[in-house]
Amino acid sequence: MSTPKSAQTGDRPHPTPPMPAQHLDEQPGVEADMVLKPQYQAPGYQGSGKLQDKVAIITGADSGIGRAVAVLFAREGADVAVMYLDEHEDARETSRAVQAEGRQCLLIPGDVQNSAFCNEAVAQVVKHFGKLDILVNNAAYQKHTETLPEISDEKWDKTLRTNISAYFYMARAALEHLKPGGAIINTGSVTGLNGSGKLLDYSSTKGAIHAFTRSLASNLAEKGIRVNAVAPGPVWTPLNPADRSAEDIKSFGEKTDLGRPAQPEEISPAYVFLASPECSSYITGIVLPITGSAGD
Prior knowledge:
Layout: E1 55-59, H1 64-75, E2 79-84, H2 88-100, E3 105-109, H3 115-129, E4 134-137, H4 153-175, E5 183-187, H5 190-194, H6 200-220, E6 226-232, H7 246-249, H8 264-275, H9 277-280, E7 287-290
Parallel strand pairs: 1-2, 1-4, 2-3, 4-5, 5-6, 6-7
């Protein structure tokens, strides 16, 4: 039996291609400016205290997958620190959504390319909440480039520093505060599994994140700290209309087996699963693909 062109597999309808022909002018994009807002609320997801009274840091949680994860962490009982670059309007919306779940949200703007900022942010979280249980490395920079010579030294360095160096900086800063039972979750990508001809620098960093995840998991196992990654396929977030032309974005996600991009709320439950000792206490070092396709 063939898969429908755009399959609806969730508990509510999700948008299908053609997606709105919109380009966002600035990287990494502002969710508030999107014509079609991503679905992040997961209204059918019922919390059950899986993260009760835990404290989590989520980088890049002003929008997209990070915002969706913040909401579900709060629904499961966690307080959340949202680290983000400078998308203040989006970050305030994430904060409102977390507080609507009855939990605290601490907003920390700054650039994770800077190791000193990462150190200061972690210290601020521990001072505010008194502890740290979960780190989600999620912030990313992505920009399509047609050919290898078009990738400047500056672009290469920015992609690496945002997408992999920052993950190292954050993990290093968080480590002294994480106790046995703590968790680190990194956001990888299907491009890190399969490569991408027009995302040479981005896919290279995502592959590095997958190797970093497995290596750090082995390194921290004796401390009782689990390290895993989620590798999404195409997800409807500001990152993509900020990177693609209005015409190109119309077909976003249509090449998956399900024929559509994921919505952030379809990815976020995996982070709850990997963060919760009740769900995944014997899972470490995995890269979990959520790609909308078989075999990825």
